[in-house]
Structures are given as structure tokens and as C-alpha cells.
Design a protein that fits this description.
Layout (H helix, E strand, L loop, with lengths): L1 H20 L2 H38 L8 E2 L5 E2 L7 H9 L1 E14 L27 E9 L11 E12 L14 E13 L9 E7 L4 E3 L4 E4 L3 E10 L4 E11 L1 E2 L17 E4 L6 E15 L2 E12 L2 E5 L6 E3 L2 E14 L33 E12 L13 H11 L9 E2 L2 H4 L1 E14 L2 E13 L4 E6 L13 E6 L2 E14 L4 E13 L6 E3 L5 E4 L5 E12 L3 E3 L5 E3 L7 E11 L22 E12 L1
Parallel strand pairs: 17-20
Antiparallel strand pairs: 1-2, 3-4, 3-33, 4-5, 5-6, 6-7, 7-10, 8-9, 10-11, 11-14, 12-13, 13-16, 14-15, 15-18, 16-17, 18-19, 19-21, 21-22, 22-25, 23-24, 25-26, 26-29, 27-28, 29-32, 30-31, 32-33
Amino acid sequence: MKITLVASLALLTTDALFAQSADQSSVDSLKSQMNQMQRQFEQRIEAMESKMKALESHANSGSILNTRVLTDADGKGVAPGPMLDESFLKSLTRNFTFNVYIRSGVGFNGNGGPQDFDFEIPDFGLGRMRLGNENDTYMELTWQQAHLLGDGPDVMDVDMVYSLDVAYNTTKVSFTTQFVNGSQWAMRQAFLEGKNFIKSAPEITVWAGQRFYDRHDIYIHDLFFDDYSGYGMGFDNIDLGFGKLLISYLGGIRDDIASGYAFNAVVGNNVAQDTTISDPRRSGLYMHTLDARIHDIDLLGGKLELIGDYQFLKGGIYHFSNGMDPLNIGDTSGGRGGFFYFHPFGGSTPPPPPPPSLTKEGKPVAAPPPPPAPTIASSYWEIAFFGGYGASELFGTDPLNGKGTLAGYNLNQVLQRINSDGTISSGSLRRASKMRAIGYVVWNVTENFCVAAEGHWQYDDQGAIAAETVNATTGISARISSVGSTVRETGGSSWVLGGLIRPIYWLTDWFALQGQAGIDYVNNNRNGGQAFNPNGTLRNDAFGHSGALGVFTFAPTIKPLHRNISTYDIEKGGFYTRPEFRIFVTYAIWAKALEGSIGNNNPNGTPYGNNREGWVFGVQTEWFF
């Protein structure tokens, strides 16, 4: 012990001093007394060490939380109940991660009113050009707790994931209640994932619950071109030698119809919004999906993923709560196949410092190393193609995700083709088909310049011609048949082709200029949309027409040039560095044929519904981590 050693040295020093100043007998007597004091001191030290070891042993056997004496209201001791172990609490914090995505802003249109709409091509329903063109506030919170049963090699490795999103679409003021006009609260993920349950293949993963299912998207267009998210169960990371297999069962339930799914689904003043749909024997619509994916296939420096689905929709006679004629739909199956390819490129890291120079004597010369080269974030490009038919024309797990389910119903309703039992048939989904192709690149060119660009194409055949009812005198769409009305028809297929570019240039380490320029073209708009003259007469009906939309945005942005990556190096020029604080101005222009179908997607008003161009000004922030 250090204390014993110090005491011994002190005694030796004292012994030497006394030997020089006293006779031998006095020294011997004093040494005897000091030896006795030393033995007593050592005994006390040994006792203290024993007590400390006992306390350490008790602490290792359990948490100090478990040693508390619990008392009742009168101060009497009571038997302790189950309490959290300190090691478990530390495990929770060590294995806990929290992720956030948020965008929020406010804007006004060129007419002085609010930005409660966005400029979006009709009859596409798959994203919008994002920069300066997002009229909503959206926040997504994700909690993940890893290693719930521990992280040892002998236990099953279980993770839990939960995601909540909050969105506000129109009303934007301070409220004492969260349930304001346009607010949406939703559970996006709630699932468990486990691995290390097969000792011979510990990497195989099982999952169950609701989750984002291997989604792929184009960020700058808010376009999730492959999204089969939903409820189910599956197995992943099954080694095939050349790749990993992911196979899952997913189920989709719809017992309601949201506004917009049934274009002509109106009886009186009752629209499809908040309308329930159910079969007396089967309840709501149900879609079965069997999804198989082989991912992580090495190919030409990138990763290839092959995707295939089989889907089945159970038919029946489904009744609507708002009094619409019942839907009579038969059993429908379908399939989808495609691929996704991801290829990284670019990026740079500083070279290692040169070895030190040496003198003739072999001594190093003190000289500062040259400044390192900039570390530029890596880049990537990706391509994908998918094709589906029948029930898989919906491109998702939702039985009402696309137009095909109710396309035949809407047509027969407009044409008043009502069955003898009062139902309206819809066999369109069996004949429906869809194809989709995309290309996307994010290129971090230099440390202060980057650019993202994309192109997309989609062909959709809803399996039945599209039709709308119009007033024979005014030509205004009545949406339901009435005395004197006529029916306007157009083909059941439509395609959209578009592209978008978004460059960013940093002027300083924290200030950048970014912009956006994009175009979308729709061939055969099946969604309709009408524009009117000031006197109320019809100027244009976009139903059945084709045309293009262009969107252009300029946005000075406070945006960090650097970001820390997992290796704790510093990257420069990363396209996805966040947060961003933007001031934006957006200009949109569209074809005369599409008047009435763009700039009026807010039910409270039509700021640009009767125009061919429009402006939006605003501020916005975005962050994800």
C-alpha cells in the first residue's frame, strides 16, 4: 500500500534523525513506541481495505438503485418491488438512437394570398419538384432501441423501431390545440427486428409490424418510385452466394375512401372524403402482397437489386356509407417485376502527410506539413425500372393506391351502367398495367459546388376509359349525371415524362446559392380541371388534354459546407449537408391546355386555377439527422 510505504519511509527518516541527537537507549524506547503505532495504523488500513472490497463486491452484484430501503408513508420499511437495474438503464441509453426529419415554412403567392397549394403536373400523383414548392409543414420522428435482450453472442439480437409523423397542410398560425385545419398525425413505423436466432446463420433477420419497406426515392422530386411500405412480416439477409434475399408478406387494408380516389363518386353533396367501404361478409378491401428481393449483388462497381411481387385483391360487393351505388369487384391478382441499381463514384480524401526530412546526421528537420487537400463527399447515380399488371398496377400495398381499382366503377357510374342488383361493376383492375423508369445522380463536383439531377417516365393504363359528366349548356363538369348533361370520354392510358436539376454553390462556409429548374409533361390528363373567364363562362377543360409544366426556383440558403461523417473526417461540398435555412422565389408556367388543372389543388381557393403562370415567395427550413 502507498500509505504503508509512506509511513515506513517516515519512520526510517525519523529513526535517522533521532540516532544523531539521543543516546541508544532512548532511541530503542522510542522505536518500540513507533513500531506499536505502525502496527495499529496498518491494522486500521487493512480494515478499511476489507470494507472497500465488500462495498465493491456489493456494487458489482447489482445496482445501487436496488439497495435502497423503501419506506411507507409512516417511514416503516417495506419489501422492495422490482426495480430497473443500473446496467439495463445504461444499455438503454447506449443503444438508443433518435432520428428526425423536418421541413417547415410559410409563403405567399403572387396574388397576395397564401401558399396553400403547390405546382404539380396533373394525373401523376407521384411527387412534386420540391425546392420552393412545398406548401406543408412535415415532421417525422423515429425512435430506435437496439439490443433489447442484450448484445452478447448467445442471445437473440432484437431492435425496436417506432416513427411518428406530424403534418400541417394549410392553416399556419399558433394554436393551443394540435387538431387544426389540415393537421395530420400518423404512425409511420412500429416494428421489431431480430437476428442471431439461427446460430449457423446469425446474419439472417426477421421483422414484423409496420415499416418503411426498402423504399427508393428521388429526393429533389419527392418521388418514391418504389414504396411497398406497410404491415407484414419477413426475412432478410439470407445469403445466396451472389446476393442477399429479402422475402416478406405484406397486407393492405382499406375500409375508407379518401377524397380524390373516386373522381365521380358523388351523390348530392356527399363526396368520397371520409366515406367508409365494406362488404357485409368481408369487411373492407384487403390486398395480399408477396414480395421477394435479391439485393447487394455486386455488378460493375455498384450494387444491383432484383425485385418481384405477387399480389391478390379479394373481390366482393362493397357498400359506401355516403349512399353511392355498391361496388361489385371480382377477385384480382397481378405481378410486378423490376430492378434498382446504385453506383457510387467520386469523392476525395487528403493524402497522408509526407515523411519528415532528415539532416546529414539523421536528425528530423522541423517543417510544417503542406495543407491537406479538401475532403469532398462521395457521389452516386442510380437507375431503376418496374412494370406491373393487374392488382400490381397499384404499385403498393394499398388496395386503392392507384386508379385501376375504381376506374371501371367511375366509368359505369357516369354512363349509368347499373346492374340488376343495384351494384356497379369494376373489372378495370384486371386489365390495368403500369411501367415506371427513373435515373438520378447526386454529384459533389468540388468542395463548394454540387448538383443533383433526375429524369422520370411513367406509363399507366387504368384498364378502362376515363369519363366525366358535363352540363350540356355551360360545359361545366357536373361530376354526376343530370338532366341535360353529356359525357366526355378520353383514353384510359396516360404517360408522364419529366426531369429536374438542382445545383448548389457555396459562397462561404455557411452561405450558398441554390436553384431548381424542372419540367413535367403529361399525355392525356384523365383528372380533369377547368378554368373560367371572369364572367363565369368556361374557358378550358383540361380533361383529355396534354401539356407541360415548368417550375423554376432561386433560393439563397444558409447551409453548412462541412459535415462530420462516421469516420469523424470532414467532408466538404456534400449535397445533403443540413440544416438549410432558405429564402425562395418560385415561378411556374404551364401549357394553355392544362389551364384549370394546376395551381388550384387547394379546396379553399384557386389562386392560379384560371391562369397559365404563377409565383410563390417564402421562407423554409429543412433538417434531417
